[in-house]
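WARN retry 2 of 3 for item q-0093 after timeout on previous attempt; input resubmitted unchanged.
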Amino acid sequence: MFRSILIANRGEVALRVVRACKEMGVRSVAVYSEADRDCLHARMADEAVCIGPAPATQSYLSMPAIISAALITGAEAIHPGYGFLAENAAFARAVADSGLAFIGPSPDAIERMGDKAAARATMMAAGVPCIPGSDGAVATAAEALDFAEQVGFPVLIKASAGGGGKGMREARDPAELERNFVAAKTEAAAAFGDDAVYVEKYLTHPRHVEMQVLADTHGNAIYLGERDCSVQRRHQKLIEEAPSPALTPELRAAMGEAALKAVRAVDYVNAGTVEFLLDQDGRFYFMEMNTRIQVEHPVTEQITGVDIVKEQIRIAAGEPMKHACQRDVTLRGHAIEFRINAEDPAHGFRPHPGRIDVFNPPGGFGVRFDSHVYSGYCVPPNYDSLLAKLVVWGETRAEAVNRARRALDEFIVVGIPTTIPFHQFVVEEPHFQRGEVYTDYVDEHVTAEAFTAFMSGVLPAKETTDE
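OK item q-0093 returned
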């Protein structure tokens, strides 16, 4: 086992890894920018190193600064968290070249799954169901139109090197395709330094369902059940739950085996997530693979009892997984995660950095709270707006929804607007209460008019439950 690990990230995910290190008896090293000097992850780690000014390009995205910090402090491994350099093959390679262990998959696996068009081809060859799509990247709008006319509109234009909804545009007719093709390429180039895009058939009202996988160097590979991430806005996840209300045990097993085919196709090692779209007829299709820990991993931990971050560390150290056989994985109850962001849902989810005067999180049975925030903390404008992840667990989904209602009502934040009111609206919305959600759910059922009425005291009609 490693004696010391550097966490190349910030905020709640950095604190999450610090906590895992402490429980494993491993020394933790945090890095922070000048803007994050008072961030909780820097305070809680055994050692903290300032790696640069506030802009991420000069701190959390600076490979030389991070690797130098690891070497200077005697760290033996680097955990990248999510975002920043987590899925950067060049960084993983530089870490290894410096004699350090990268707590994640190999650079080759990151590269193969990071190019979405190449990943799709790999999955098709492995027998994983894929949405009908173009044969690799398309260079011109005319080529994209040829494909769209073959499969029929609507279609989705997606960045080959993309993720997080960036470089993604829907097109419902030829004119919209021509406009959005240029927009997608422009956004892809700005976000990823690569303007390549591909085109695939757009599914109507699909669910976004993903499989958490783990694989070690001893030949063990398992899936930890699924997460339903269908409640999103502009392809950004807002609420995630496990298990999915839509999956039967048979469908879960089929999707899990497909995820393991993806793992084996690229000799994948460590934690990863294979993301699928599930259509209204129960057919699922590969979308992409995230080669890192996910923001929403806590809901999987809550229903399986598996500490995914600790498993990541064990695997990177060459140890077998604690849960090495599929039969060891059992799902119990239901968990829901709410992303609490420093955003104003009443004004288009506008980011809102600033000082938090009062921060009083909820607690009680079945409530997990992951956050780096405290009263008096100043939210910097330089990074992602995520403040906290509120995770609730119940024996049933109905109990989890009721517990979410109670926990959100207890949650007090004074000083800046947050997404708490949005989540309070959603847990009262009838379609969500019935588990009838899909990727367009927010656009169709959480309209500005409905949200304004809710904030004015006019509540959506509640579903009655017996719990």
